[in-house]
């Protein structure tokens, strides 16, 4: 086929749904469903904001500061651990006590506010007696709130620098509208991921922050895959004067399989970290990192289709080049023709009408069957006869 072929779709080989998906021959009207995606995102963002304002984030010890003890829990209950804290002048009601598993051994993780070295050592001694273990089997960790504040500042600084560099690169490689859309999609992914942690009250640790920053990279990659195809098709269909919604629809259908493969290839290893590493082997640190990645990978794949692309279509549709194009959006067979490199039926009919006005029905039929790049160009002028 030529760059813009007008051969009917019916002449192409018939494939199953998975066959069309694999070969990039789908005809999903993404732009026709954009309000569903934007509506879902708006609802999630609203729930996120409400959750952050009402219950906030469950910050880990590294951010809010305090003391943490881990004790083998075979002979120790949560109630006994709270009694030990109360006996040492610590507010047991504000303490956080959870059971964790490491290498198949159950342990109680006890977290409280900052304490003096003498109190920390006395708690270790009392916990050892209550659990009937040696004091050396109890681990203790103390972090000041100022250290957690410094981590937060560095994370925010890294996020700002990353966003600026991304905006500059995409504006240079593509255009400002794509840069703005990609950044909005990235911030959407991070906000939704933070919202899930707030709603479920999952603990936020430094590993979680690292995972959030990693999400930005994946979200950007998936969006750039779509935008690169959009940029290619914008030049390809320039002579056909298609509405920008059609260019977006064609591009997303052509890279749909690639986006799905990329997302699955990234999600499966992360899922194995959650199931095998955190679930079966009890590696808690892996769970903190993998859970944020898992949520971010899903939202990143979703936002590249339902957030970044509709935003780009809205920004570009208001430019003078596309504002005057009022043709209806191609759907169904017409969209499939565009995905396969051809022109929709309405465009083919307009070619027939122009050709009829110039040279009759025979030339019209010939024009419709010709490649579009031939029909859309002006025929060469006849040479003038030279005088002798």
TrEMBL record:
Pfam families: Sec_GG (PF07549), SecD_SecF_C (PF02355). Residues 126-316 form the Protein export membrane protein SecD/SecF C-terminal domain. It is found in: Cell membrane. It is a multi-pass membrane protein. GO terms for biological process: intracellular protein transport. The chain crosses the membrane at residues 35-54, 155-172, 179-200, 206-227, 264-284, 290-315. Residues 360-388 are annotated as: Disordered. InterPro entries: SecD/SecF_arch_bac, SecD/SecF_bac, SecD/SecF_CS, SecD_SecF_C, SecD_SecF_C_bact, SecF_bac. Coiled coil: none annotated. Keywords: Cell membrane, Membrane, Protein transport, Translocation, Transmembrane, Transmembrane helix, Transport. Its main location: membrane. GO terms for cellular component: plasma membrane. GO terms for molecular function: protein-transporting ATPase activity. PANTHER family: PROTEIN TRANSLOCASE SUBUNIT SECF (PTHR30081:SF8), PROTEIN-EXPORT MEMBRANE PROTEIN SEC (PTHR30081). NCBIfam families: 2A0604s01 (TIGR00916), transloc_SecF (TIGR00966). This is Protein translocase subunit SecF. It comes from freshwater metagenome.
């Amino acid at each position: 086929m030529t760059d813009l072929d007008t051969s009917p779709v019916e002449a192409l080989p018939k494939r199953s749904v998975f066959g069309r998906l694999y070969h990039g021959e789908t005809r999903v009207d993404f732009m026709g469903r954009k309000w569903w995606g934007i509506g879902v995102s708006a609802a999630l963002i609203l729930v996120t904001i409400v959750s952050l304002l009402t219950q906030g984030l469950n910050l880990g010890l590294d951010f809010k500061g305090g003391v943490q003890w881990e004790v083998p829990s075979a002979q120790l209950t949560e109630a006994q651990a709270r009694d030990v804290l109360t006996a040492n002048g610590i507010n047991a009601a504000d303490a956080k006590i959870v059971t964790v598993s490491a290498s198949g051994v159950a342990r109680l993780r006890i977290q409280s506010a900052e304490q003096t070295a003498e109190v920390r050592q006395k708690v270790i001694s009392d916990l050892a007696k209550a659990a009937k273990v040696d004091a050396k089997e109890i681990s203790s960790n103390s972090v000041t709130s100022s250290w957690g504040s410094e981590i937060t500042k560095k994370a925010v600084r890294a996020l700002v620098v990353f966003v600026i560099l991304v905006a500059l690169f995409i504006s240079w490689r593509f255009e400002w509208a794509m840069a703005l859309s990609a950044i909005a999609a990235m911030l959407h992914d991070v906000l939704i991921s933070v919202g899930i942690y707030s709603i479920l009250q999952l603990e936020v640790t430094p590993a979680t922050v690292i995972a959030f920053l990693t999400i930005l990279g994946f979200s950007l990659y998936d969006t750039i895959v779509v935008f690169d195809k959009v940029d290619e098709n914008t030049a390809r269909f320039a002579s056909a004067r298609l509405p920008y919604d059609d260019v977006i629809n064609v591009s997303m259908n052509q890279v749909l399989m690639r986006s799905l493969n990329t997302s699955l290839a990234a999600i499966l290893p992360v899922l194995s970290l959650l199931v095998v590493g955190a679930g079966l082997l009890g590696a808690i640190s892996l769970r903190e990192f993998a859970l944020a990645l898992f949520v971010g990978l899903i939202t990143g794949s979703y936002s590249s289709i339902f957030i970044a692309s509709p935003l780009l279509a809205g920004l570009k549709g208001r430019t003078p080049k596309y504002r005057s194009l009022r043709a209806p959006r191609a759907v169904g067979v017409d969209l499939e023709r565009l995905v396969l490199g051809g022109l929709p039926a309405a465009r083919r009919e307009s070619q027939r009408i122009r050709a009829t006005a110039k040279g009759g029905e025979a030339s019209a039929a010939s024009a419709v069957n010709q490649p579009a790049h031939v029909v859309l160009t002006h025929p060469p002028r006849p040479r003038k006869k030279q005088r002798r």
